[in-house]
Amino acid sequence: MHTRTRGPVLRHATGTVACLAAAAALALPASAPATGATAATGGTDGGSTIHYSSGKPRDARLTIPKVGIRRLPVLAYRGRTDDGPGTRIQDRGLAASPYGPRGGIGPGGIGNYQVTAHRTVHGGVFRHTPSLRRGDVAYVDAGRWRYVYRVVATRWVSFRSAASLRAQRAPVPGHPGRKATIGYLTISTCATPEDHAAGRYWADRFGNPTHRIDKIAILVKRVANPYR
């Protein structure tokens, strides 16, 4: 079931399983600033100006204090979420970030910065990300900048539904075809424990189970990278 809130809502695309958390309203500016520009936003960072990157793909480091993730390497690769190349990165105990026509953008850009990692195998670095709640913070360090994202919603994604995957990979998560006007971060990991508990043991050739659990965050601030 879905609890509706004011504003646009991220929806579960398949209807095969209920969302763990109701999707939250997203604060979407009326128009998109130029790439690499600044944008005045209301409600995401106290009305302050957010400085976006060009969106160029690059390696980064991810920190999520709430779940004990500290400076996790995130490797950029050309592809789409949880494909063969991305799985090989995750199998090394790292996080992977796809870019290109079927992927996302780089850290700090306008659009969907997608980061995936394993939950139950190869170190399980995303073992606790499904417990993230609205308001929890993630930091992405890239070059001289640290990009601060705040969790606003939860989505379930079905690997057996092309429509669900399109929604996951869309510039505005959950809304294929909509033009992004702010920066998003999709933190994605498998729902293997939940699927197995429900008797769903299907997996694709890369080991992806039926469902994934995504946490959607929005960019609220850019500050100096404290590790630069």
Taking the sheet with the most strands, its summary is:
8 strands, mixed
Which oligomeric form is depicted?
Answer: single chain
Pairing-aware structural class of the strands and helices?
Answer: mainly beta
Counting structural domains, the number is 1
User: Per the principal axes of the C-alpha atoms, what is the gross shape?
Assistant: globular
What is the annotated CATH architecture?
Beta Barrel
Question: Could you say what the CATH topology is called?
Answer: Sortase, Chain: A
- Termini separation (Å)? 44 Å
Summarize this entry quickly.
A hairpin with a 4-residue loop joins strand 3 (60-64) and strand 4 (69-78). The protein is 9% helix and 32% strand.
Would you kindly provide a written description of the structure presented here, covering whatever features stand out?
There is one protein chain. This protein has 3 helices and 10 strands; from the N terminus they run E-E-E-E-H-E-E-E-E-H-E-H-E. The chain is mainly β. The chain has a single domain (38-224), classed as Sortase (Sortase, Chain: A, Beta Barrel), CATH 2.40.260.10. The strands form 2 sheets. An 8-stranded mixed β-sheet has the order 5-4-3-7-8-10-9-6. A hairpin with an 8-residue loop joins strand 1 and strand 2.
Which SSEs are present, and which pair or pack?
Elements: E1 38-40, E2 49-51, E3 60-64, E4 69-78, H1 84-90, E5 95-99, E6 111-116, E7 137-142, E8 145-158, H2 162-169, E9 183-190, H3 192-197, E10 211-224
Parallel strand pairs: 4-5, 6-9
Antiparallel strand pairs: 1-2, 3-4, 3-7, 7-8, 8-10, 9-10
